[in-house]
Structures are given as C-alpha cells and as structure tokens.
Design goal:
This protein has 13 helices and two strands. It has about 375 residues and is mainly α. It folds into two domains: about 325 residues, no CATH class; about 30 residues.
Length: about 375
C-alpha cells in the first residue's frame, strides 16, 4: 500500500505537470485570454489584475490537497493502489475525460479571424492536459471515497453479525457470565456505531471542500475565471455535495446502522430473564441498555451522532455558503462582499445628507 509521502510526491508531480501545460497555454493564447480570464482585484485603492493562470494553479493545488487528505483518511484504499489494481479502468477514465475536453474544445474554438482561431485551437490543445489532470483528480477522488465507503459498509455488517452472535451466546451461560457477555457485546456495539461516523468522514470532507471552494469563487478574484456562470456553478456543486451526503447517509442508516441495531435489540430482548433477575443491578442495566439502543436507533438519534466532528462542521460551512450564495445571486456581483457592504453604507449616508438638506425629513432607511 502506498504511503502518505509516496502519494504526496505523485500528486506534487502531477500538479507540476499541470502547471507547466497551463502556463504554456496562457503564453500561447497571448492577449486573447488576458481580458476574458484575468483575475481582477483592487490594490491600494486602484483596480489591478493578474493572469488567470495564477487562479487556475491555485485551484489545481486545492484539488490535489483535497485528494491527499481524503487518501490519508481512507486507509484501506490509496488512489495509487486503485490505479495499479485497475489499470484498464483508469485508462478508460482517462480516455473519457480526454474526450470531454476535446468536445469542449471543438465547441469553444470559434472566431471570425482565422489567425485568432488557430491560436485558440493551439491554446486549448495545450490546455487540455491541465483540464484532463484536473478532472482526472476529481474522478479519482470520487472513486476513492466510494471504494472506501463500500469496504466500510461490508466490514461494518460483518463485524455487526459477530457482535450479535456473541450476544446470542450469552443465553447459554450462567446468569453472571451471561450478564458480563451482554455488557461486552454492548460496548462492542457502541464502538461499531462510532465507526459509522468515521465511515461518513470522507463524504463530509468532500462536501466541506466544495462549500469552501464555492465561497472562494464567489468572494475572491477567482470569480473572474468563470465569467458569468460563477453563481450557477456554485449552485450545481452545492447540490452535488448535498446529494452525496444524503445518499451516503441514507445507505449507512438503512443498510448498516439501523439494521444492526434492529438485530441487536431483537436478540437482546429475547435473552432469558434469569440473566437480569439474578441481581437488581442487572435489571436496571437491562432497562438502561434497551432505552439507549432504542433512542439511538431513531433517525433523530442517527442524525445526532452524525452531527459530531466533521458532520457538525459540514453543517456550519454549508449554512454559511448557502447564505453567501443568496447574497451573490441577485444582483450578480463583481466585487467582494466587503466592498458591497461599504457601498451600501455610502449610499445610506448620501441619502441621509440629502434628507437633511430638504428640511430634516427622515431618510428612507429610517422610516
């Protein structure tokens, strides 16, 4: 299995190759891409701009970092192992991505001037390597998450069956030994349910990364890379993140979490009462365990467990990103949120001054 450093070196090499082709494509495009894809910002109160290549290099680095993080928290599968074990799948995926890039190039390269059209064709041919690497990272990221998720689901159900088997065996033991077996099975069940949270962690990190990238696109000069479609693109990516959480959470709850608790409770409630009637403390523990498991089995209990750590952070970042997207939707903004706030403050001040000049009438904002 590939180590973290091996993965980091390969990702760094891929990032360097992508950057090289990206810079070459901007150099070949010349002034054609300067106006359309430059990053516009304000420096010392004056408008300024820089090459869009800076932003695209940052986006590629962000994706590589995300893939490295997800790869580090999915110990069963490394994306290098996936490529090595399924080279034909990786090759077909590469051809598919290259085909998408070529199709996009054919649609994009269109200009009345034949010289400019040739320059654009050459530019997109070079740029296609960067695009293939970017989309390839995205596909590998998703495949890594799905592979680890499936492995965790199978392992969860297998371990859950063993825990239920140990609990069932408690019925054939003496009251005290049977009670001890029940307690051990209960502790093992709690540890298994904790693994359900860990199973969702890569999905939560994936969603957080999308939300953060959306915020960067909406309220930083990176918005200039996407011309008029920034808000639409962030809405689509937000929907993808929400669907990923919903589908993964539904599978974990229905296939693993709830199904295991149903089996555990069924066996637990069928145990001989002689185990718990042997001691008043055993009887009290029987009630505590039954109530605890029944509470955790509910959908609200599952959502509560998932809201810890990465799940809670995902919810917070998602709410912030959703609110920011609503602010950015209407009107379409070209400046940062901070600039909009200052502009609104200046307009309110001007309106108040105009009201005073008219004889002390109340400004509209105060009515």
């Amino acid at each position: 299995m590939a180590t973290g450093w091996t993965t980091a070196i390969w990702l760094l090499a891929g990032w360097a190759v992508g950057c090289a082709f990206l810079i070459a494509s901007y150099w070949r495009a010349g002034p054609v891409w300067i106006e359309r894809h430059s990053l516009k910002f304000t420096m010392a109160g004056k408008p300024a701009r820089c090459s869009g290549a800076v932003g695209e290099i940052a986006v590629l680095a962000y994706c590589a970092l995300l893939l490295w993080i997800v790869d580090a928290i999915t110990p069963t599968w490394s994306f290098l192992d996936i490529i090595a074990k399924r080279p034909w799948v990786a090759l077909v995926s590469l051809v598919f991505v290259s085909g998408l890039v070529a199709f996009h190039t054919m649609r994009t390269v269109d200009h009345a001037d034949a010289t400019v059209k040739k320059r654009l064709r050459d530019t997109y041919a070079i740029y296609s390597v960067y695009s293939a690497l970017l989309f390839g990272m995205g596909m590998i990221l998703i495949y890594t998450i799905v592979s680890q998720f499936w492995f965790d689901t199978v392992a969860f159900n297998k371990d859950g069956a063993e825990i239920v088997g140990h609990l069932r065996h408690a019925a054939s033991l003496s009251p005290r030994s049977g009670y001890e077996a029940v307690e051990f099975a209960y502790v093992d069940a709690m540890k298994l349910l904790k693994r359900a949270e860990d199973q969702m962690s890569p999905v939560f990190i994936f969603a957080i990364a999308i939300f953060v990238l959306n915020l960067l696109i909406l309220y930083t000069p990176l918005r200039g890379l996407y011309v008029d479609g920034a808000v639409f693109m962030t809405n689509v990516s937000t929907l993808i993140a929400i669907c990923a959480i919903g589908i993964a959470g539904g599978v974990v709850y229905v296939v693993s979490y709830s199904a295991f608790l149903d089996r555990f409770l069924e066996v637990f409630e069928a145990l001989p009462r002689t185990i718990f009637e042997a001691d008043p403390m055993f009887t009290r523990r029987f009630g505590d365990i039954a109530l605890s498991l029944d509470e955790q089995k509910s959908l609200i209990g599952f959502i509560g467990k998932m809201s810890h750590e990465w799940g809670g952070l995902t919810a917070i970042v998602g709410v912030v990103q959703g609110a920011a997207a609503r602010l950015a939707r209407n009107p379409e903004i070209e400046k940062s949120l901070e600039a909009r706030v200052f502009k609104l403050g200046e307009e309110a001040g001007a309106e108040e001054e105009a009201a005073k000049e008219k004889g002390g009438a109340k400004p509209r904002a105060a009515e």
